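Chapter summary example: a protein plus tryptophan.
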Amino acid sequence: MSGQNPTTSKKTWANRWTFLLAAAGSAIGLGNIWKFPYIAGQYGGGAFVMLYLLCIAVMGVPLLMAETAIGRHTRLSPLNAIRKLTSDLGASKLWGIIGWMGMLAGFLILSFYSVIAGWSLSYAWDIVTGAFSGMNTDQVGDAFGGLVSSAPRQIFWHTVFMVITLVITARGIHKGLEKGLQVMMPALFALLLIMLGYSMLETGQFMRGFDFMFSVNFSKVTGEAFVAALGQAFFTLSLGMCCLMAYGSYMPANNSIPRTAINVAALDTLMAIISGLIVFPIVFAYGLEPSAGPGLLFVSLTAAFVHMPMGELFGFLFFVLVGIAALSSAISLVEPALAWLIERTPLSRTVATVILCAAIWFVGLGTVFSMSGDLTFTLFGKNFFDLLDYFTSNILLPVGGLLVSIFAGWIMKRSTLMHELGLSVGVFNLWRAMIRVIVPLCVLTVLITALF
Ligand code: TRP
């Protein structure tokens, strides 16, 4: 990102790779590697994966295009982008709620995201210091229990992750991070391929894992699974909270938005699928439960690293790279609220970042304590973390996406979007029909099903 205040900068990124990299950096993170396998495992595999792919294609890609187009057209931060468009078009100021909801969603998501990223850092440390060596699978499972039941350990790593996020955000050194990402994202990809090789060749359960992910048991295609798939599609693509609007505002005018959107969605989906194909064969080989929940990735991969040649090295690299992928997502989660604080208050970027990150850190303690069992509060059978996750992914993001689609489809001028997207008339009309009718109807249907 440019070194200037991102809210006022009209500078654009130097070349078309930079936007792709930044958007992919935001999209690829814990959502793909940690969350996708565990949610798929909880909702029975194939049925969920099918619904998820459907949501990505039908709602994800058109919305990704819409968010990016709004950002690039206005070249403003999300809240100001919406404000400017509504005043230019004479539409209601209430649309500003899109920006507010985005900030709230980013804030809440980052609070638990940081705790999970902390787990990853903790695992990197424990693996490289030999804490797992010689353990059998039960002991690896107990070790995960040991981490989540310890509030101090989780708080320590949650703090480490938040401080790194804070420093990078406060100093506006996204540029440095992006240089790093050019190396680290491919490295993460390479490591995932190595692990995929392990799952294929060493577990003896690859086909079982593959079947679990891709054979659809239609009795499991339920309303509940659909909501989860929709939430996961939005979460993994960083949709529904104006993240890509913010990034789109830096995108050079001659980049193709549709092509980039398809590339981001494809890369992101590929990472999630590979992650699932790594995790499930290991799960079956070591007698674990696919529906184990948030610990699934950590327990299954560690069980494999313990048995692998050079497992300590691979394990360390893996969890560090997952932490870095999480970092590039975390930065995009903080940006909308930070941009607003800097614009609307006299605070400097540094002070605004410190206050915001401290508040996020504090809310994150709720996730820590609900994991550790110190916070026993539940509602509808969900603890604090589950509630936060459900409310953000399955409600806030889809509602945000619904509003963006209505705004782009019914309020904005056809010619503006046509110009930004640069599609032929036929394809543009197809996109517009999706954004005006299909996306809102699908999101609404899923949400209403969820409520009843
Ligand atoms: N997409 C990221 C992931 O999969 C998380 C994320 C970053 C996100 N920015 C977002 C989720 C904005 C929702 C909205 O890990």
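Key point: Residues 311-344 form the longest helix (34 residues).
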